[in-house]
Amino acid sequence: MISTKRLLLKLALSVAAVSPLAAFAADGSAPDQLIRQLSIETLDAVKSDKAIQGGDVGKIMELVDSKVMPHVDFQRITASAVGRFWRQATPEQKQRLQDEFKTLLVRTYAGALTQVRDQTIALKPLRAAPEDTEVVVRTEIRGRGDPIQLDYRLEKTDGGWKIYDVNVLGIWLADQYRNSFAQEINAKGIDGLIKALSERNAKPAASAPKKG
Amino acid sequence: MTTHLTPRLRAGLVGAALLAGMAGQAAMAAEAVGAEQAEAAHATLAALAAGELPAEVRASVVGTQAEAAVATESAASASDDNAPAPAASDEAASAPAAQSTEETDAPAAAAAAASAAETGDTKVPAAAGQAGQAAEAAQQGDVPAPGPRVRNKLDPWERWNRKVFNFNEKLDENVLRPVATAYSSLVPSPARQAVDNFFGNFADAWSAVNLFLQGRFKTGAQQTMRVAVNSVLGIAGLIDIATPAGLEKNSEDLGRTLGYWGVKTGPYIVWPVLGPSSLRDSVTLPVNIYYSPAYLFDDGEYKFAISALQLINTRAGLLKVTDMLDGIALDKYTFVRDAYLQRRTIKAHSSSDDEEDDYEVITPDEKPATP
Predict the structure, then answer these.
(1) pTM of the predicted model, to two decimals?
(2) How many CB atoms lie under 10 A from the CB of residue B172?
(3) Closest approach of B337 to chain A, Cα-based (Å)
(4) Closest partner residue to A122 among B334, B335, B359, by Cβ?
(5) Measured between CB atoms, which of B53, B200, B362 is closest to A36?
(6) What is the pLDDT of residues A181-203, one digit of tens each?
C-alpha cells in the first residue's frame, strides 16, 4: 500500500519534472530552443521519409503544416512581402495570398529537401536580452560544400515565439518577394498577383528550361 | 584631402587606390595576351561571377570580340570619367533613399561623397567606388538618369539590364546549360567532386586573404588552416578533408571586403556573359580575373582549359538551383536582381564579435524524446 503510494508519488513527481521541459519545447519559451527543436524534428522527419526525399509536395506540405506552421506567423510574412498593398486587400484576398504564397514556398523547399542526406544543423549562441520581444536566431546547415546560412526572425506573442521571416543564404524571404509582388500588383492589381501565384503553383515543380 | 575623411572612408580610398593599381595590372595583362587567352580570361570571369551566387549564372564558354571589349572596358573603367558619371549621379541620389530593406547607412555615403567632392580631385580613381564617382557627378550637376522611368532606385539601368539578362539567358539555355548537363552525366561523380574541391580550395585561399582584409582574424586563420590542410594532405585540394575535420568553409571575396570597409553596393549592373553585378563588385572583376585558378598556369592553352573547366564545374553545380529558380520566380529578372542585391549588401563592419561566435553543432541524438 505504502509502496504503491510512493510509486504514484514518484510518478507524479517525475511527470511534474518532465512536463515543464515538454512545455518548454512545445510553446517555445526560448526562441533558440524552439528553432533547435524544429530543426531537429524536421531533419529527422525528412531523413526517415523516402517520399519527402523524393520531393513529394503533398507529403512535404503535410510536414510543414503539422510541424512548422504552428510556429510561424505566416500572415505577417505575407503582409510584409505584399508591403503597402496589404491594407488594400480584402480578407478573402489576404487569405488567398497567404495560401498561394505558402504553396509557392513549400514547392521551393520541396526541391531543397530532396537534397537532404547527412546534414547537421549548427546553431549560433543567441545574442538577445531576456526582455527582447524580437530576436534573430542564426543557424547553418552543414553538409557537403558551403554551409547553408539559415536565419530566423522571431517575435514573442501570446502564443509563444513565432517565426516571421526566414533568411536563406543571406536573403530574407519577405524582402526577396516584395519587389516581385509590387511589380505584379502595379501591373494587374492584387487579383493579378493571386492569379500569377496560382498559375506558377499549377506548373510542375522543377520544370524543364523555360521557353522563350 | 584629409580634413573630412572619416577613417572608414580613408580605408576605403586607400584600398580602392590599391585596387586601381591591381586593375591596371590586370588590364595590361589582358591586353598583352592574345585573343585565345582573352577568351580564357572571360571564361574565368564568368565563372567567378557565377560563383558568387547560385542564381546568377549567366555565362558561356564562347568568348567574342564584343565580350573582350566588355572586359577591357571594365578593367579600364578606372580611367574613364564620362561613362560612369550618370551612374554615379544616380547612386548619389539613391543612396540616401536606399530601400527600406537595406540597413541604411546613407549619411555615411553622403558624407563620403561630400568629402570626396571637397578634395576637388577629379583624378580620384573611379575604382574608389561610388564615393569618387558620386563626387564627380555632383560637380557636374544633375545628370538626367538614363532609361525611361526609374522604378527601382537600386536598378537605374533596368531597361538595359533586362536586355543583357535576356541575352545571357539565351546563351545559358543554348550553350552553357547543355554543356554542364553533359558534363554531369558523362563524368563520374568522384571525378567531378575532385574538380569541385580543387577549385574550392583555390577559392578558399582567396577567401582567407579577404577575411584578413576584413579584420576577421580568427576566421581567417581557420580558413588558412583549411587551405593548408587540403593543399597538403588533400593532394593539392583534390580531396576536402578539412570539412570533416571541423574546419568549415567561409566564402568571402573582394566585393564583400569593400562592403566591410563601408563601400556601398551601388546600382545593379548585368554584364553580358558575366551576369549580375553591381558598381562596387564590377570594380573588383579585374582582380578576380587575375587571381583566378588560371593564375597558376603560364601557358595559354592550360589557362584556357582550366578556366573552361572551372566554368563548367560551376554551372554543373548549379543545375538544380537554376531548375528550382524557374519554378519559384514570378519574374526571373526581378528575382535574381533582388537576391543578388540582398546578398551583396553588407553592413559595414557587421559586428565582428558576433562573427567570431562559434556555432554549436546540433546532432539529432540530443533530441529529448523520440516519437
Answers:
(1) 0.63
(2) 22
(3) 9
(4) B359
(5) B362
(6) 999 999 999 999 999 999 988 87
| Helices (H) then strands (E): counts for chain B | 16, 3
- Measured CA to CA, the distance from residue B247 to residue B239 in angstroms comes to 14
Percentages of chain A per state (helix, strand, coil), in multiples of 5 = 60, 15, 20
Q: Which of B181, B174, B130 is nearest to B273 (CA)?
A: B174
Q: How far apart are the first and last CA of chain A?
A: 82
Q: Are B73 and B290 in contact (CB under 8 A)?
A: no
Q: What is the rounded CA–CA span in Å between residue B340 and residue B50?
A: 11
Residues 6+ apart with CB under 8 A from B163: none
Residues B235, B232: Cα–Cα separation, whole Å: 6
In angstroms, the CA B61 to CA B180 distance is 11
Phi and psi torsions of A156, nearest 5°:
-85, 120
- Amino acid B64 reads T
Residues of chain A below pLDDT 70: 1-29, 111, 144-145, 204-212
Cα B160 to chain centroid distance, Å, stands at 20
Q: Do A104 and B328 touch (CB under 8 A)?
A: yes
Kindly give the parts of chain B with pLDDT less than 70: 1-151, 347-358, 362-371
CA-based diameter of chain B, in Å? 70
d(CA B120, CA B118): 5
3-class state of residue B243 by DSSP: coil
**Alpha carbon of B262: minimum distance to chain A alpha carbons (Å):** 18
Q: Specify burial of residue B344 (Cβ count, 10 A radius: 0-12, 13-18, 19+).
A: buried
